[in-house]
C-alpha cells in the first residue's frame, strides 16, 4: 500500500516588485512533480542546492501548501488540512534536521527535547514519558547518563542521535531526513547510516532522504529520485543509480562523487 503520494505538485513563490520592474517575479520551486512511497521503503531525493528538495519536504510534511496538486497519506488527501487538523497524522510523520543543535531549545535537557513531541502529540505515551525517553535513548545508542545533559554538553554525533531519538519518540511511520550526515565526519556518518538502517528494520520505518550525495542514498535507499529545477528527471533503484544513471544531470552528479583513484572516475 502507498504510504505517501504526491500528485502533480507545483509550488510558486512570488517575489516583491522591484523599483524598476512593473511585474512581480515568481520562482517555481516545485514543478509538476509526482512521486510515491511504499510502506517500509526508503526514497532518496538527490539534487543540487536550490532544486526544490527542501520545499518538497515541507509540502510532504504539511508545513507548506502547494500552489497546485495533491498530497496523500495512506490514500487520505491532506493537502488543504489546517494546522489543527494536521495533528491527526502529525505523530506519524517526523523529521531529522541537518543541524540538530540548531533545532534544539538550548535550555532543554535531553529528556525534555525527546519528550517534547510526546507531550505535544503522544497522549497516553506522555503519562510514562520518562520510560519512553529512556527506551528511545537506548534505541539510538545513548546511555541513561545523557538524559540530564544539555545540547552544548554533547558531541556532534551525540547531538545527531538525540535528533533521531526525538524523531522516533512517537514511533512514526515516516521520517524525512534533511541532509542528516552533511555535518558529520566519515566515521560518524557511517555510524548514523548504520543506526538509521537498524531503526528502519526494528521499527518498520519509511524514510525520505534529502541530500546532494548519491553515494549516501545508493547505500541507504531502495529507490532514488533525481531532482532538477523543481522536477524529477530520473528515478531508479538505489543499487542501480550509481552504474546506470542515464540522464545528463544524473551523470553530472555522479561525476562529483569522490573516488579513491581519479583514474576510475567515469566521464560525464
Automatic annotation (TrEMBL):
PROSITE patterns: ABC_TRANSPORTER_1 (PS00211), ABC_TRANSPORTER_2 (PS50893)
UniProt entry tagged with the keyword Signal: no
InterPro entries: AAA+_ATPase, ABC_transp_ATP-bind, ABC_transporter-like_ATP-bd, ABC_transporter-like_CS, P-loop_NTPase
Keyword Nucleotide-binding set for record: yes
Origin: domain of life: Bacteria
Residue ranges of domain ABC transporter in the record: 4-254
Database matches in PANTHER family: D,D-DIPEPTIDE TRANSPORT ATP-BINDING PROTEIN DDPF-RELATED, TRANSPORT ATP-BINDING PROTEIN
Family: Belongs to the ABC transporter superfamily.
Protein name as annotated: Dipeptide/oligopeptide/nickel ABC transporter ATP-binding protein
